[in-house]
Amino acid sequence: MSNSVIPPPYAPTSSASYTGARAGASAHLDTEIKLVTSTKEREHYDSLAEIYAVLTSLEFLERAYLRDSILHTEYTPTCLRLLAQYNGIVGSNPALLGDAGIEGFRDRYGVSATHAISRLKIGVPATVEHAIMESGGSGSGGAGGAGGANGSGGMGASARAVAEATGNFITCMDALRLNYKAKDQLHPLLSELMTSLNKVTKKDFEGRGKIVQWLITLNALKINEEINEEQARQMLFDLDNAYKVFYTNLE
């Protein structure tokens, strides 16, 4: 019977392996491990971190709004800012999220942000998507009575707000007539239109819902995509009808 010691099956058996092990043993445990190897790679992960921050912030904001823990006057500008930040990050690097989009980002990093993702898909704050009815403010205590900013009849609003909304209607329709079809051309104009309409009236009116649907349609496009000719004509038709109803309801 041989006196040689048989090493266990998991132990290295060649001198080369032992040499490697001895060389590795001399490495310091506090040696810094580089997570990125280039500036481009660092920028990529920085952008992903910014998307994560926007997503979690927007989720908290949406939940606060649903619980009525934040005034809509505070919610709207904050939501618009977060949406603009997200669009800016993704717009500067369309390949950042890949084909899976924001849902793929959610699944990959385990982010629980149902409300935030829904808001990103729609592309506008809830106060723009849905008409917000004001309570109070139309009573007799106002300086102008029924002629206040939110009077009891019709669309009571300042002349400046009405002029701004009218101008935004005309701008959107002119853009379509000039053959604007890209997302980054039309979405900001429609978003500005909806914001100005909310300054004039908190009531819903015929055609308002179609503007919101066009906002959602545009927001679903990639930054380099365009609507087709048929969609452009339909959008112009819907905007023209909405403008006529809006103008008729003015006092």
Any overview of this molecule?
By secondary structure, this protein is an all-alpha fold. It has 2 domains: about 40-125, Vps28 N-terminal domain (de novo design (two linked rop proteins), Up-down Bundle), CATH 1.20.1440; about 155-250, Vps28 C-terminal domain (Four Helix Bundle (Hemerythrin (Met), subunit A), Up-down Bundle). Helices cover about 60% and strands about 0% of the residues. It has helices at about 15-25, 40-65, 70-90, 100-110, 115-120, 125-130, 160-175, 185-200, 210-220, 230-250. The longest helix is centred in the first third of the chain and has 28 residues, at about 40-65. One of its GO terms (biological process) is protein transport to vacuole involved in ubiquitin-dependent protein catabolic process via the multivesicular body sorting pathway. It comes from Geotrichum candidum.
- Kindly give the count of domains: 2
What is the arithmetic mean of pLDDT? 78
Q: What's the story with the biggest beta sheet?
A: none
Helix/strand order: HHHHHHHHHH
CATH topology of the largest domain: Four Helix Bundle (Hemerythrin (Met), subunit A)
Tell me the number of strands: 0
Globular, elongated, flat, extended or rod-shaped: what is the shape?
Answer: elongated
